[in-house]
């Protein structure tokens, strides 16, 4: 029975592909998940149903795992699954139950940027338009490469038996584009996973070997880093598959039970059965038999994690052995990427860092070969520059140096820095060092780095690129305060002396942020002067608009004193360099945006003429960019920025200078309705402030000033396009003029507002929806009537001239025939006339003689009021007839009731005609009483009784 059981478990370990584990466990190559999933789906339905094994093995597995257990074993297994943490520790699992898991490798320390974060950037940066080739026996198509079969080659091909494949001849695919090459690599990935799931382990191994061989091809050298990423993704998957299979075969009998248990996460080699160890050794023996060095290295590195099944401290020994083996690779580019892969896998396995230092030592040992004659002739053949070739080393070198810097003291890093700078052409090493070492280490030695970068040989790289990188680091991690100025001075001196304007601008783009963040206005102005000095000759600035824009944005957005920046001598000349209209517009918009963000939450004001002129110049640029094709959102955004600037300008008690500023702004901002509206509101506020200061008693000087303000508003309002906005501004300006006893200006504003009523469109579109303007008309007229109550009549215009004008123009607006807005307006006019006939008005304005004082309830005036009342009532009666013809009975009853209320509260019912009208209105209202709310009818009846009208009405009825 025991032998039979072991046989079944062996079958399970052999056949079980564990597809979900393999597909989900791809931590180092997430892009391959889709390929693995596709491979799984490509299997036949039976394979999917039985997890890659045959049906008999599947049923046997189910029997062993469930039905084959005796009751005691099943009970023990269930109890073990329910054991608390404390019970598990009694079974020998203490170390895995600590509350905070101790890190077991360098990557778990979270001190290094994960490879997955770098992967996408490498694929995007290192691309090519040249044709690529691929040699494989697992993809269809391509040219067949016939293996030699002579007697002299037999021994060779016996040693290379793992390099050939039985199912087909090796084929070479030529003239592949980059995209096609990536597709072929993904197909190899798919083939590897599918072969593994079908228990074709040898085929999967051979695919991994052939993929590794591709990394020896540098025919398209500029694509090599991306090829490395794609191939190592496949190798990561292969290593994961091998490890998961070995762990599946390493199931063991838990002490105290008879049940087979999977290895825990933190298993030790003594827990691994001998059969699993033997299988693991067989994998390493197979890989050791690979003839070529490069695939033997890469495939062993891929399954390096499997050493955990064999010995406790095997990782360190294996990593150092593989480090020495890489010395046999002749091409320095191929070698450094092999070291990168070794360090990447090693960091995920152990905390040991010795092998990383040894790899760095080997890199420094052969560093000079990167620039020797053979390499130079090779890159000349590839037609790339030495700078382009050197940049190919950066991804691998950055990763290795970042690993070296983990948990390393500053003294050790200083030693590495010293060794690197002593090399010939150390620019590549220094750039990688600045990208990989801690930023605080770089910042604390900023002066030393500036000195090094200013003097070293930079063949293979540009000095400007190094200073740009240093500026980027110092912008986020500044050096000590006592070093900052000397660092800036020395760096700018070196940058200015580069002799290459393009490199200067690239550096200045980064150092602009450092300068604006950590220095005052003087240093910023000197920095801008340096930029101007480099850009002015021969209109060079036209080729560097982007860099100039970035510099300007950083200076303004990081400034501690944005007003001071705008007042610098070199700031406006820098803006003048932007001759291209679209770029200048974007720069000016960004400046005003930064200004708004910097001053939105404070009470800071602008009263410096230099700052005001600078912002006015920027506002002029934005205003001039607005035309008929400008979108509404763009127009709204620009207007908001300019209005914020207008509201910030405040000259205190110097009202005349304030008004002069508004006059200048009006001439500049003629294309923006919102800006003009803000100016008018500001001028009205200025006139109101003047009245408050003199406490309503104007002197000759202040009276002239408020008249000038009123004139400004009256002249500016016609420039606004929107009719409704003009009406509201006329009304507001008229009210302010009336408050300041500028009666003539007030009359002009009110008259202009009334005359605009017929120009209001019947509907307007807002946010894609059409709205009627009748509600706006009603609100506006009600507000106007409340103001006209205290407006004295102009002796040259007649009694209630403005009201007569209003009654004349209101019918010209295209109301709906049955609109209740029309009748509501006339009802409000009746309210106005009722107030106008009173002996004393309910409110007044100081120093303004209203009609109650002007006429003193003169009978002629009252007669005019009564005449207007009759005219309004006639209009309402006509509207009642229209409602009847339109069968709008509910609206008719409501209007009759509303008019009835107006009459009984404001008219003399002792007049027979008035009383008769009231009775008819009551009859009309109650005729359709079902259309009126019962509560409203009850309220009206109570009012009638209170006023004594009830008895008359009842008697009449």
Automatic annotation (TrEMBL):
Please report the name of this protein according to its UniProt entry: VPS35 endosomal protein sorting factor-like
Q: What is its main location?
A: other
Name the Gene Ontology biological process terms. endocytic recycling; protein transport
Show the GO cellular component annotation of the record.
Answer: endosome
**Keyword set for this entry?**
Endosome, Protein transport, Transport
Q: Which PANTHER family match?
A: ESOPHAGEAL CANCER ASSOCIATED PROTEIN, VPS35 ENDOSOMAL PROTEIN-SORTING FACTOR-LIKE
Protein localization = Endosome
Record keyword Ribonucleoprotein present: no
Q: Which organism is it from?
A: Anopheles melas
Asked whether the keyword Protein transport is assigned, the reply is: yes
InterPro entries with a match to the protein in the record: VPS35L
State the family named in the UniProt similarity comment for this chain: Belongs to the VPS35L family.
Coiled-coil stretches are none
């Amino acid at each position: 029975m025991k032998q039979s059981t072991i046989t079944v478990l062996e079958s399970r370990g052999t056949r079980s592909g564990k597809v979900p584990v393999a597909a989900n466990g791809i931590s180092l190559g997430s892009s391959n998940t889709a390929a693995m999933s596709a491979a799984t789906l490509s299997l036949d339905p039976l394979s999917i149903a039985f997890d890659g094994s045959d049906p008999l093995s599947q049923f046997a597995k189910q029997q062993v795992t469930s039905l084959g257990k005796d009751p005691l074993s099943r009970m023990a297994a269930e109890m073990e699954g329910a054991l608390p943490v404390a019970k598990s520790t009694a079974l020998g699992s203490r170390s895995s139950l600590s509350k905070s898991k101790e890190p077991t490798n360098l990557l778990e320390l979270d001190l290094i940027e994960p490879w997955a974060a770098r992967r996408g950037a490498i694929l995007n940066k290192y691309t090519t338009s040249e044709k690529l080739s691929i040699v494989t026996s697992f993809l269809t198509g391509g040219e067949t490469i016939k293996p030699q079969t002579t007697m002299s080659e037999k021994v060779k091909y016996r040693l290379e038996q793992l390099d050939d494949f039985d199912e087909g001849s090796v084929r070479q695919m030529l003239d592949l584009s980059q995209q096609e090459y990536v597709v072929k690599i993904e197909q190899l990935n798919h083939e590897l996973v599918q072969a593994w799931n079908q228990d074709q382990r040898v085929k999967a191994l051979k695919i991994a070997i052939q993929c590794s061989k591709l990394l020896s091809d540098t025919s398209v050298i500029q694509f090599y880093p991306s090829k490395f990423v794609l191939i190592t993704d496949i190798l990561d998957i292969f290593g994961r598959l091998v490890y998961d299979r070995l762990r599946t075969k390493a199931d063991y009998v838990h002490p105290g039970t008879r049940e087979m248990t999977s290895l825990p996460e933190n298993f030790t080699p003594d827990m691994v059965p001998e059969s699993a160890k033997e299988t693991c050794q067989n994998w390493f023996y197979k890989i050791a038999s690979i003839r070529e060095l490069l695939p033997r290295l890469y495939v062993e590195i891929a399954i390096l994690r499997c050493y955990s099944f064999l010995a406790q401290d095997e990782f360190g020994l294996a990593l150092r052995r593989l480090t020495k083996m890489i010395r046999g690779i002749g091409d320095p580019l191929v070698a450094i990427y092999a070291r990168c892969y070794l360090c990447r896998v090693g960091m995920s396995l152990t905390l040991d860092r010795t092998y990383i230092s040894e790899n760095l030592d080997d890199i420094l040992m052969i560093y000079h070969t990167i620039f020797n004659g053979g390499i130079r002739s090779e890159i000349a053949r590839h037609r790339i520059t030495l700078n382009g070739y050197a940049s190919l080393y950066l991804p691998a070198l950055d990763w290795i140096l970042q690993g070296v810097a983990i948990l390393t003291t500053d003294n050790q890093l200083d030693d590495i820095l010293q060794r690197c700078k002593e090399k010939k052409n150390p620019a590549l090493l220094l750039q990688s060092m600045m990208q990989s070492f801690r930023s605080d280490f770089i910042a604390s030695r900023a002066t030393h780095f500036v000195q090094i970068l200013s003097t070293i040989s930079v063949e293979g790289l540009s000095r400007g690129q190094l200073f740009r990188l240093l500026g980027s680091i110092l912008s986020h991690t500044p050096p000590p305060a006592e070093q900052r100025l000397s660092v800036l001075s020395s760096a700018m001196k070196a940058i200015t002396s580069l002799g290459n304007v393009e490199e200067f601008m690239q550096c200045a783009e980064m150092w602009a942020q450092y300068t604006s963040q950590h220095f005052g206005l003087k240093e910023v102005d000197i920095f801008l002067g340096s930029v101007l000095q480099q850009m002015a000759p021969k209109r060079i600035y036209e080729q560097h608009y982007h860099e100039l824009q970035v510099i300007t944005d950083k200076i303004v957005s990081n400034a501690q004193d944005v007003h001071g920046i705008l007042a610098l001598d070199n700031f406006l000349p820098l803006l003048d360099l932007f001759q291209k209209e679209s770029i200048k517009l974007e720069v000016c918009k960004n400046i005003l945006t930064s200004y708004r963000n910097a001053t939105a939450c404070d009470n800071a004001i602008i009263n410096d003429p230099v700052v005001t002129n600078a912002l006015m110049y920027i506002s002029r640029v934005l205003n001039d960019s607005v035309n008929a094709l400008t979108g509404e959102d763009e127009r709204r955004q620009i207007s908001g920025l300019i209005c914020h600037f207008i509201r910030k300008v405040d000259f205190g008690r110097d009202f005349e200078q304030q008004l002069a500023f508004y006059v200048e702004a009006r001439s500049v901002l003629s294309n923006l309705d919102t800006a003009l509206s803000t100016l008018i509101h500001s001028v009205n506020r200025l006139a109101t402030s003047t009245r408050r200061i003199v406490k309503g008693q104007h002197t000759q000087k202040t009276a002239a000033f408020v008249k000038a303000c009123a004139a400004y508003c009256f002249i500016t309002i016609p420039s606004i396009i929107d009719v409704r906005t003009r009406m509201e501004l006329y009304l507001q300006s008229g009210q302010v003029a009336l408050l300041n006893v500028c009666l003539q200006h007030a009359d002009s504003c009110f008259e202009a507002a009334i005359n605009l009523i017929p120009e209001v469109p019947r509907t307007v579109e807002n946010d894609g929806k059409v709205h009627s303007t009748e509600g706006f008309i009603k609100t506006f007229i009600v507000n106007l009537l409340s103001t006209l109550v205290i407006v004295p009549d102009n002796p040259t215009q007649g009694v209630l001239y403005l009201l007569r004008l209003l009654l004349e123009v209101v019918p010209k607006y295209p109301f709906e025939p049955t609109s209740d807005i029309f009748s509501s307006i006339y009802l409000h006019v009746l309210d106005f006339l009722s107030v106008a006939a009173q002996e004393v008005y309910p409110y007044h304005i100081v120093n303004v003689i209203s009609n109650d004082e002007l006429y003193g309830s003169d009978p002629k005036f009252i007669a005019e009021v009564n005449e207007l009342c009759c005219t309004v009532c006639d209009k309402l009666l006509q509207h009642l007839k229209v409602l009847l013809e339109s069968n709008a009975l509910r609206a008719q009853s409501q209007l009759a009731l509303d008019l009835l209320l107006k009459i009984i509260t404001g008219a003399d019912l002792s007049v027979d005609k008035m009383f008769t009208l009231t009775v008819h209105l009551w009859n009309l209202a109650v005729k359709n009483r079902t259309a009126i709310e019962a509560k409203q009818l009850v309220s009206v009846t109570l009012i009638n009784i209170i006023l004594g009208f009830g008895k008359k009405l009842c008697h009449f009825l």
